[in-house]
Amino acid sequence: MGSHWVFIVKDHKLMGRTIPAMEVLKDRVKNKFWSLSSKARNVKKIKPGDYVLFYITGKDERGFGGYGVIATEPHPVTPEQRFHIVGMPSEAFDYAVDFSEAVVWDKPIALEELGDKLSILKGRRSLKIPFRGSIIKITEEDFQTVIQYEKPP
Length: 153
Hints:
The protein is an alpha+beta fold. The chain has one domain (4-150): Roll (ph1033 like fold). The chain contains four helices and nine strands; from the N terminus they run E-E-E-H-E-E-E-E-H-E-H-E-H. The protein has helices spanning 21-31, 79-84, 111-114, 140-150; strands spanning 4-10, 12-14, 17-19, 33-36, 51-57, 62-70, 75-76, 95-109, 135-138. Strands 1, 4, 5, 6, 7, 8 and 9 form a seven-stranded mixed sheet that branches. It has a two-stranded antiparallel sheet with strand order 2-3. A hairpin with a 2-residue loop joins strand 2 and strand 3 (17-19). The two termini are 25 Å apart.
């Protein structure tokens, strides 16, 4: 089994307008790729078969919003992918990974709902600090905890 990651998506700006992070996420999943910076921490460690959770950090909405399975190594953004990238900061990104599978959930799972169930959050006063950046490595157990939490009992 591959590695497990969290990809962070935040609100984007386009000509003075804010594009909500959830809208950016839905567009990425619909087009089955994720744009990234070639300089991002951990970008060179992403491999086909890796699993990723999508974490939304927007002004109006925060939480885990879905998951995906990586299909490609990180590669330069293709002209077709560039066409679908709208707003900053994504317009500045030069790399992408494609998904073999990607899903957006109806409602994000807030960090507060998960509490100490995730090892990455245990003992932290601020639950948001581990989710700064763009690509965060997590354990398989944390990945499975979030996935199971989303599924109805």
